[in-house]
Specification:
The structure holds two protein chains of two kinds. Chain A is mainly alpha-helical. Chain A folds into two domains: 83-382 and 529-618, no CATH class; 383-453 and 456-528, no CATH class. Chain A has helices at 12-36, 46-56, 68-72, 92-127, 130-164, 166-199, 207-239, 254-258, 263-292, 296-317, 320-334, 336-343, 348-372, 383-400, 410-416, 430-452, 463-490, 494-499, 501-522, 540-565, 588-626; strands at residues 456-457, 527-528, 570-572, 576-577. In chain A, the strands form two sheets. Chain A has a two-stranded antiparallel sheet. In chain A, strands 3-4 form a two-stranded antiparallel ribbon. In chain A, helix 5 (130-164) packs antiparallel against helix 6 (166-199), helix 9 (263-292) runs antiparallel to helix 11 and helix 9 (263-292) runs antiparallel to helix 20 (540-565). Residues 1-67 and 623-627 of chain A have low confidence and may be disordered. The longest helix of chain B has 24 residues, at 2-25. By secondary structure, chain B is mainly alpha-helical. Chain B starts with a helix and ends with a helix. Residues 172-179 of chain B have low confidence and may be disordered. Chain B folds into two domains: 42-171, Orthogonal Bundle (Cytochrome Bc1 Complex, Chain D, domain 2); 186-266, Cytochrome c-like domain (Cytochrome Bc1 Complex, Chain D, domain 2, Orthogonal Bundle), CATH 1.10.760.10. Chain B has a two-stranded antiparallel sheet with strand order 1-2. Chain B contains ten helices and two strands, in the order H-H-H-H-H-H-E-E-H-H-H-H. The chains are: A mainly alpha, B mainly alpha. The interface between A and B is large, with 78 and 62 residues.
Chain lengths: 627, 268
């Protein structure tokens, strides 16, 4: 039976109704489950939630049984070195570290790809351009093998934690067991959606069935996101425990443990980063296929795929610094000590490495766009501006790269020769960095704007005015960002210093949104001066896409280490101490070696996945030829 | 195959460049090992343990970081105070008795209005009166050896020589060695959680937050509940967001929370 026959009516409203009904069915089912495990639905009034908790909690001396809580939940155990099992020849911490990181890289990829595929599929449906559908299918094909590998690393991580950290796992399971069961259930649901989505692609390619297919893709994304949020609850609880007392005794309300202080900032940061990361990995895949292409048609297809993936990566990359800023601000708000350890202690040097990596990301994104201008001869009008854009981006990168005060022990201070540089020190504080990153984003957007108009000339009568308005917006925003950064950042008090970052971000977003709107209208029906020739891009540009993918992976590994390491010698910060022989904070060199090994393993597996997709494609081509 | 090898070599080279940069170009600072867990015996206390005690007091019992933090901007940051204390003494506005940096910090903690850093005084006093509570009395009530521990922590943090002497005797057991009993009245709740450090309430004269002496006449019970549990839900005019700690809902016992709300409702 054809799936399309399930839905009899074909009008648009019914199709939408079907989608909405499916959503409510899934949501109701999920909340039914959550209800039974003492969840509060997302968005519940904080006061109400807190009141419920207060009612449930009975303090010492109150009318209820004082020991009821302790009978049900134990305090966090106080462990000794002997409580951590040892396996000869294997360092438990490094194994858990590497496996967790590999699981996370793959998970980020397989969560991101369905988002991209879903969007590309909708664009394909709206534009009726089959190329989009073909590309979306190719994306999901690549992610399918990665999905299995994600599950394998997830299982391996669980075994590793149970073997090397049994007491920690017992403690976490006591609090989070309902969510762990939900996680397993959702994983099955996600697998089902993914397999139907992939294997049903061609069966549901046309008409109403396409809507069913889209709905399944949408469900796949919702379930995947919920899965990530659940896992985020566990790791963020370890950083900012909530719903437990000072001794680690669980109060019994799991929503409090999930909805801890850092949960939402982490959710946002990881979601945005996943999109950028997924785009970068797909971009590397397209670059590899481009370099291996044997004919111009293939070259054109993979050039276009690489461009689209890079565009998605940029879309994720632009808001990422803001999401990161929010996360760090919330870490400070939760614990000054943790925040200072993170930004002002020994970890501060890691942010200098981060600056190098993000600088590399921005430069490679821009370089790719500049190379992409070679697709059209019309771009020659703009190439003279590239050197200025490059100069500004490098200058901003150098500001971002400058360290400031490092809080150290006297020994460390002596070894480093002082807390900060006399002249460059002022560039190390956040107002300078906020200013630099906003200008870097604006100039990256300028690169994109120039690329966008490289093959056309606006024909609307108001084009000169439009250009002048765009230029004015750019100049005004840059001046505004500089004034906010310099005046409020250095010559006023802390409240204004921190507060000024918000209008800075608003200025950047205003530039991007307003200039994009003007550009879209200005170039509607524009005259094409020289057509974009997909595939006519130098090979060297593709290496920018590899830098993007490798740098992103390495950066995620580094940031994963920082996020975890700022707990220092705590399994659960201030509540459950880590007394294992490996509780020490490693040096940067040690950490980055582990990260580099992880990246090499990850890249080797990714290449294997690409190869599988490649030979699978070959088989399809040969079958197609026989038929 | 040639493309494959080129891509692999290029990718590995990028990874190795980052590893090289992080290992060779970045100073390899070895972080301090996890602090010892052993209970402190004042007689055999090391300076490292004493500094750690100061660190704990700063972030905990002393409630110092409620104001001395980079978010609220309510009070000067203290990460370099161990170093700049000597310069403060030379300031023409300084009228205190301190001769050394150590003495200056001690004086600032016990008599905060002796010298007020420009811009951080109580409104309308032209920086002659500090909004900071005396740390050795009231809700905070630090002992002398705890004040010394905090000074040692400041000096170590600023990278200057720690001049504070270790305590020679074990202090007598005090009430802070056991878990505090639940507060029984509104005044006790206010004292226990240090509300008076920022608010004017229950006879305490905090000036950083809104005056709560007649709050019951202006706000109802629901508003006050929300204000304690989720302080950023409604911000009083003239006070920036993010100043009040958001975790009183988890720190207070349920009985104490109700007592406090009732107390404020009746404050008319």
């Amino acid at each position: 039976m054809r799936l399309s026959s399930i839905v009899v009516k074909k009008n648009l409203l019914l199709k939408m109704g079907f989608t909405v009904a499916l959503f409510f069915f899934v949501s109701l089912f999920a909340f039914q489950f959550l209800e039974s495990t003492k969840f509060f639905p997302i968005g519940v009034d904080t006061v109400y939630a807190a009141e419920q908790a207060v009612t449930a909690e009975k303090p010492a001396g109150a009318e209820a049984k004082p020991d009821a809580k302790k009978e049900e939940y134990q305090p966090a155990p106080k462990l000794t070195e002997k409580d951590y099992p040892q396996v000869k020849g294997i360092n438990g911490r490094i194994m858990a570290w590497l496996v967790a990181q590999l699981h996370l890289w793959f998970a980020a990829f397989v969560l991101a790809v369905p988002i991209l595929v879903f969007i590309v599929e909708i664009i394909g449906m709206a534009t009726k351009d089959k190329r989009y559908d073909k590309m979306a299918y190719e994306f999901i094909k690549v992610s399918l093998t990665a999905y299995s590998i994600t599950a394998v690393f997830g299982g391996l991580l669980l075994f590793t934690l149970v073997i090397f950290y049994p007491d920690f796992m017992r403690y976490m399971a006591n609090i989070f067991s309902p969510t762990m069961l939900a996680y397993a259930f959702l994983f099955f649901a996600e697998s089902a959606c993914l397999y139907i989505y992939y294997y049903g692609w061609h069966a549901m390619e046309e008409g109403t069935a396409k809507w069913v297919h889209l709905t399944i893709g949408w469900m796949l994304n919702i379930i995947g996101t919920v899965l990530m949020f659940l896992a985020n609850a566990w790791v963020s609880f370890m950083m900012s425990p909530h719903g437990v007392d000072a001794a680690g005794v669980f109060e019994g309300n799991i929503w409090h443990a999930i909805h801890n202080h850092l949960w939402n900032p982490l959710n946002l940061h990881r979601t945005v980063a996943n999109v950028a990361y997924g785009g970068s990995i797909i971009g590397a895949y397209a670059a590899y296929k481009f370099l291996s292409a044997r004919n111009t048609e293939e070259k054109a297809h993979y050039d276009w795929m690489g461009y689209t993936a890079n565009f998605i990566a940029i879309c994720g990359l632009l808001p990422l610094p803001f999401a990161g800023y929010w996360l760090i601000a919330e870490i400070y708000a939760y614990s000054q000590q943790m925040g200072i350890t993170l930004m002002g202690g020994v970890f501060a040097w890691l942010f200098i490495i981060q600056a190098v990596l993000i600088g590399a990301l921005f430069l490679s994104v821009n370089y790719y766009l500049w190379c992409g201008m070679e697709r059209s001869k019309g771009a020659e009008r703009y190439t003279k501006y590239i050197k200025y854009i490059a100069f500004v981006i490098v200058a901003c990168f150098l500001v971002w790269f400058t360290p400031h005060t490092l809080i150290m022990t006297p020994g460390e201070l002596k070894a480093l020769g002082g807390p900060y540089h006399k002249y460059l020190g002022p560039l190390g504080i956040m107002p300078a960095k906020n200013t630099a990153v906003n200008i870097m984003l604006i100039f990256t957007f300028l690169s994109f704007l120039l690329y966008r108009r490289c093959n056309k000339i606006a024909t609307v009568s108001w084009a000169p005015i439009g250009n002048a308005i765009q230029a004015a917006i750019f100049v005004a925003a840059i001046i505004n960002i500089c004034i906010l950064g310099i005046y409020y950042g250095y010559f006023t008090n802390t409240v204004l210093k921190v507060g000024s970052s918000v209008p800075q971000v608003a200025s950047t977003l205003f530039v991007i949104i307003s200039c994009m709107i003007i550009d879209v209208f200005m170039f509607k029906g524009a005259k094409e001066v020289a057509p974009l020739q997909w595939g006519k891009i130098p090979d060297r540009s593709q290496y920018a896409l590899f830098i993007l993918a490798v740098s992103f992976t390495w950066l995620m590994g580094l940031m994963g280490f920082i996020r975890s390491a700022i707990r220092q010698h705590w399994h659960v910060y201030t509540v459950f101490r880590d007394n294992s022989p490996d509780a020490f904070t490693p040096t940067i060199g040690y950490a980055t070696k582990v990260v580099s090994i992880g990246v090499i393993i990850f890249m080797a597996i990714v290449i294997f996945i690409f190869w599988l997709a490649h030979i699978s494609g070959k088989k399809n081509v040969s079958q197609g030829a026989h038929h | 195959m040639k493309t494959f090898l080129k891509v692999v070599i290029f990718s590995v080279a990028v990874i190795l460049f980052y590893a090289f940069y992080a290992n060779v170009m970045i100073p390899q600072v070895r972080p301090a090992p996890p602090p010892a867990e052993a209970k402190l015996d004042m007689g055999s206390l090391t300076m490292e343990q004493f500094i750690h005690m100061g660190d704990e007091i700063f972030h905990g019992k002393g409630t110092c970081e409620l104001c001395h933090n980079p978010v609220g901007g309510r009070a000067p940051l203290l990460d370099q105070v161990g170093k700049i204390a000597e310069e403060r003494i030379k300031d023409p506005r300084y009228k205190g008795k301190a001769k050394t940096g150590e003495e200056y910090i001690r004086e600032s903690m016990k008599e905060p209005s002796t010298f007020v850093v420009a811009g951080f005084g109580v409104k309308g006093t032209n920086d002659t009166q500090s909004p900071m509570p005396v740390v050795t009395s009231g809700a905070i009530g630090l002992k002398d050896f705890e004040v010394d521990a905090v000074i040692a922590y400041f000096q170590q943090k600023a990278g200057v020589t720690v001049t504070v002497q270790l305590p020679k005797e074990t202090p007598k057991a005090t009430e802070e060695t056991h878990v505090a009993d639940p507060a029984k009245s509104g005044e006790e709740v206010v004292t226990k959680y240090g509300c008076g450090a920022c608010h004017k309430i229950a006879g305490q004269q905090g000036a950083l937050g809104p005056d709560l002496t007649k709050i019951g006449a202006k706000k109802n019970k629901d508003y006050l509940r929300r204000a304690v549990l989720n302080p950023n839900a409604d911000i009083a005019p003239g006070f920036p967001a993010g100043m009040m700690p958001p975790d009183f809902g988890t720190k207070m016992l349920s009985g104490e929370f109700e007592i406090l709300i009732d107390y404020m409702v009746k404050s008319k």
